[in-house]
Design goal:
About 35% of the residues lie in helices and about 25% in strands. By secondary structure, it is an alpha/beta fold. It folds into two domains: about 240 residues, Rossmann fold (3-Layer(aba) Sandwich), CATH 3.40.50; about 100 residues, CBS-domain (Roll), CATH 3.10.580.10. It binds adenosine-5'-triphosphate.
Length: about 375
């Protein structure tokens, strides 16, 4: 557990970066620190490993004042990942990851073997261990940065905008990878970002900071979206927070309806012309696309005769996916699949909206029924 108790930081030039701030990061959870540039996020993060000392107040790690620990010893239990990975350019990937364990006395051979395992764990191939950082893409370098921070198996990870230098697609992949790793490893993570979407995706709790190092709100992401504490947080979380909140509403009670289906490879005799949209499935019952109403199939049904479908909603995942599936489908019918991708049924946007309404105002809906 990391605890900030009324910490304040004033730099020598008089600038106050953090203003009497109290915050607790529970063990085994991810807390995202988010806010505009210069609001004190990095300052706060670096107080944990004593790269920066507070002007007043206390930072506790598992109940112990960090000031009572020698910084070098303290940092052994704290992984640190920064933007653009900060790798040693003249060491191979494997040696970058093995450096810290070797400093702690692990044999070179053992440290390298562990490094190779970690390299795979963060989603890179073992062969990449022999390359130099400049021979990797930005996203791959970030993965190495994460592997290096994990190498000493620290219970705490500090991550300072670790993914902000890569493009959005790679970034999303790195975020997913971190979530997967975190499920496995259960570290106590403090994650700095200026991107509210990243904070909401990764944080079990999100701390929104505003200029001058004030804590504007500290809450789980769904609460932040549902009940922003003030105008600053409201504008910071953005306009479509109502829609984004659906990411945290489960889809229990969603009742997919049947729809006419055909299979790829069916002949025109099997596929009579219909006035309704027809969903085409493959041999594994997975949706492949839609057949337009009244479309005539010539010969066998092939994929190029289909209109590409919208997004798919997996049964049991949050309601946002169900609404998106309905809104993005050419037929207006959101396709619902099971965990294996097999077709289950369809939902309309109206159906999803009714469910949302019932969740938000249960009494009202019951009264109307
Ligand atoms: N060494 C320093 N000396 C003086 N002022 C500093 C120092 N480091 C940071 N500051 C100031 O403290 C404030 C907070 O800086 P900090 O780097 O913690 O913000 P941040 O929220 O991480 O910003 P960014 O998102 O831009 O990285 C800023 O106004 C900054 O200019």
């Amino acid at each position: 557990m990391i605890e900030f108790r009324t910490v304040r930081k004033q730099y020598d030039d008089g600038a106050v970066a953090v203003q009497e701030l109290s915050l607790t990061v529970r063990a085994g959870t991810v807390t995202a620190l988010v806010g505009p540039s210069g609001c004190g996020k990095t300052t706060l993060l670096r107080m944990v490993n004593r790269m920066i000392e507070p002007s007043s107040g206390t930072v506790l790690l598992d109940g112990h004042d960090v000031r009572d620990s020698d910084p070098a010893v303290l940092r052994r239990g704290i992984g640190y990942v920064i933007q653009q990975a900060g790798l040693f350019p003249h060491r191979t990937v494997r040696d970058n990851v093995a450096t810290v364990p070797m400093l702690f006395g692990r044999s070179r051979r053992r440290a390298r073997r562990d490094a190779e395992e970690l390299i795979e764990r963060v989603g890179l191939s073992r062969e990449m261990g022999g390359r130099y950082p400049s021979q990797l893409s930005g996203g791959q370098q970030q993965r190495v940065g994460v592997a290096r921070a994990l190498a000493a198996d620290p219970p705490v990870l500090l991550m300072d905008e670790p993914f902000s230098a890569v493009d959005p697609v790679v970034r999303a992949g790195l975020q997913d990878e971190l979530m997967r790793l975190q499920e496995e490893l259960g570290k106590t993570v403090l994650f700095v970002t200026h991107d509210i979407d990243e904070a909401i995706k990764l944080g079990d709790r999100v701390a929104v900071l505003r200029q001058g190092g004030h804590l504007a709100q500290y809450a789980p992401p769904e609460e932040l979206l549902a009940r922003p504490a003030d105008d600053f947080v409201t504008s910071f979380v953005g306009r479509d927070r109502g829609y984004r909140r659906l990411s945290f509403v489960d889809s229990a009670g969603l009742d997919p309806a049947p729809v006419d289906t055909v299979h790829i490879g069916d002949t025109s005799a099997d596929v009579p012309s219909r006035a309704e949209w027809v969903l085409a499935l493959d041999a594994h019952e997975r949706p492949r696309g839609w057949l337009h109403p009244n479309a005539t199939v010539r010969g066998q049904l092939t994929e190029d005769q289909l209109i590409a479908g919208g997004s798919l909603h997996t049964l049991g995942s949050p309601l946002r996916g169900a609404l998106d599936a309905a809104l993005s489908a050419p037929s207006g019918l959101g396709v619902v699949v099971d965990g294996d991708g097999g077709f289950v049924g369809v939902v309309t946007a109206r159906h999803v909206l009714d469910l949302i309404e019932a969740r938000q105002h249960p009494a009202l809906t019951e009264g109307a029924a």
